[in-house]
Amino acid sequence: MATIRLGDKAPDFTADSSMGTINLYDYLGDSWGILFSHPADFTPVCTTELGTAANFKPEFDKRNVKMLALSVDGAASHNEWIKDINEVQKTTVNFPIIADEDKKVSTLYDMIHPKADSNLTVRSVFIIAPDKSVKLILTYPASTGRNFYELLRVIDSLQLTAYHKVATPANWEHGNDVVVSPAISTDEAKEMFTKGVEEIKPYLRMTPDPTA
Ligand code: BEZ
């Protein structure tokens, strides 16, 4: 297992899932992807997370992001658990959950942190761009459920900064002003960003969100 770092190609794999056999690259196609692990089926925090993820799927779809969950339980277990998630979270889990009983994928992606738990995956998140490069890595412990608003927020930032010469400041949300990339001069920025550029410091230039 090699460490996966930002910019690396997401390792491809073929695995069983709640929706049958899945190949990561075929599944993603030309879309963005979010691959996220959870510790185990039939556990409380995971139930809230997977239900929330399912309820947020239209927002991921809007951003052209395919969702893929994973735990080291089998496909039959995932499908039994999905019935509970659908019932208690009033949703329909409509994305695959990888069945990683042999820990092949969780090992490939370093999702088992032995000092946290030697058998179960932690709450890892990998956001993968259409060119299959890894754009974001997050790791949460089993005891802390993820904030899916934050995942959407960070996808908005990743997608904006992939296509425009900007960066997003602290607590940024879609529509807020953005930072002009330090790589371009203020004069260049004034030509590029027709909505205006404010130079607060020579290294801190703000411009309205070009996509808002
Ligand atoms: C949970 O999802 O609630 C959970 C799973 C494993 C350890 C602790 C909490």
Automatic annotation (TrEMBL):
CDD domains listed in its UniProt record: PRX_1cys
EC number: 1.11.1.24
One Pfam family cited in the UniProt record for this chain: AhpC-TSA
InterPro entries xrefs: AhpC/TSA, Peroxiredoxin_AhpC-typ, Peroxiredoxin_C, PRX_1cys, Thioredoxin-like_sf, Thioredoxin_domain
Single GO MF annotation: thioredoxin-dependent peroxiredoxin activity
First-level EC class: oxidoreductase
Gene3D superfamilies, sorted: Antioxidant, Horf6, Chain A, domain2, Glutaredoxin
Keyword field: Antioxidant, Oxidoreductase, Peroxidase, Redox-active center
Cross-referenced PANTHER family: MCG48959-RELATED, PEROXIREDOXIN-6
Protein name: Peroxiredoxin
The species this protein was found in: Maribacter cobaltidurans
